[in-house]
Amino acid sequence: MPVGLLALALGGFGIGLTEFGIIGLLPEVAADFGVSEPVAGYLVSGYALSVAVGAIGLTAAIARFDRKKVLLALMVLFVAGNLISAIAPVYPALMAGRVVAALCHGAFFGVGSVVAADMVAPNRRAGAIALMFAGLTAANVLGVPLGTLLGQQLGWRSTFWAITVIGVVALAGIRLLVPPTPAPSGTSLRGELGAFRRPQVWVSAAVTVLAFGGMFGAFTYIAFTLTEVSGFAAATVPWLLVLFGAGTFAGNFLGGKLADRALNTSLAAILALLTAVLAVFALTAQSKVMTIVSLLLMGAVGLATAPGLQLRIMRYAQDAPTMASGANIAAFNVGNALGAWLSGLALGAGFGFVSPLWVGAGITLVGLAVLLAGSALSTHRPPHATDSPARETPPAGSSTPARQQVAQP
């Protein structure tokens, strides 16, 4: 395993802490700045929107530059954003810091996915991407409880100071451990955007939106399900969420291994299993034992799709993987927002706190249908440069750029 992957994972961990760590600190932030809790909540939704914007816009702007230098610049942006947040004297300054940090989020994972894939043999790419994403899933496990604990003990600003330090360490690690990765010759914005003329790129992005829309449609209101339906005390919810996060950590690695073996087949199986897990969760949510089992499985199966989804879009955009990869990160966040919105509609319509689980199952089922239809289209249509990944894979150890070292999914 290239040690540079650990530096990328540490950067992902810091970015994940920035995204999730503030969730448990919103009451302190609201009290400090004298704003309502819904207004404080804009620090979360504003971050997600900025991630989607940065994943497309910033990635497009940097596609032709050396990828290692791009990662270093993005980490500088990340450190600057968290430093602004740590010293913010007023609420708008804190929001500005959140936006600055969020802009690097999508581009970092988009570019980092390509760099990680290029550091290993072709048959280990999904595993390398999974390792980089492990930083994000670790932050999902630890971000809320640790960020909340630190902020409650030393003030909410201390959380941002800690994340700033992590960013500096990750910056040094990338500088020392990640090999130079020049952008392919002839890379241009027009060429990168050309990837979006391929139907399979859009299929991959759509499946990402629906897969994560289903999981986060169920997860966004899970605290209400746990307390109002399953009967858990509110004080136990953070620890149950840690259990969910532990599932995502394990599922991320398992999904990477499965995607390296059989990409489309493994994704279809995982989406079918996720649909079943959410449906069973909805039917058995009144049982504490089944809720614990379902929560763990939901995290594991839900995040198992992440490496495969990222690899799939890169394979079908092998001559423009950076832009496609960034677009897929944006699709993750669009899915998060879509799932939360649809589940909110179900709650508003009076269907109860189990309804988000059914909404999530329905969205995931649609995602499975889109994947199967897209895979069938790819299988039965003749190979063509505009909609099919490259079919030749150089020998392991080849120095050919990652976008050319593509195996047929």
TrEMBL record:
Q: Which cellular compartments is it found in?
A: Cell membrane
The principal localisation class reads membrane
* Record membrane topology: Multi-pass membrane protein
Q: Where is this region: Disordered?
A: 381-409
A cellular component term, taken from the record's GO annotations: plasma membrane
Instruction: Name the residues that span the membrane.
Output: 42-63, 70-94, 100-121, 128-147, 159-178, 199-224, 230-250, 262-283, 289-309, 330-351, 357-377
Q: Which GO terms describe its molecular function?
A: transmembrane transporter activity
Segment forming the signal sequence: none
Query: What keywords sit in the KW lines?
Result: Cell membrane, Membrane, Transmembrane, Transmembrane helix
Domain Major facilitator superfamily (MFS) profile spans what residues? 4-379
UniProt feature, compositional bias: Polar residues: 396-409
The UniProt entry, under PANTHER family, shows: CHLORAMPHENICOL EFFLUX PUMP RV0191, PURINE EFFLUX PUMP PBUE
Q: What protein name applies here?
A: DHA1 family inner membrane transport protein
Q: Which organism is it from?
A: Nonomuraea jabiensis
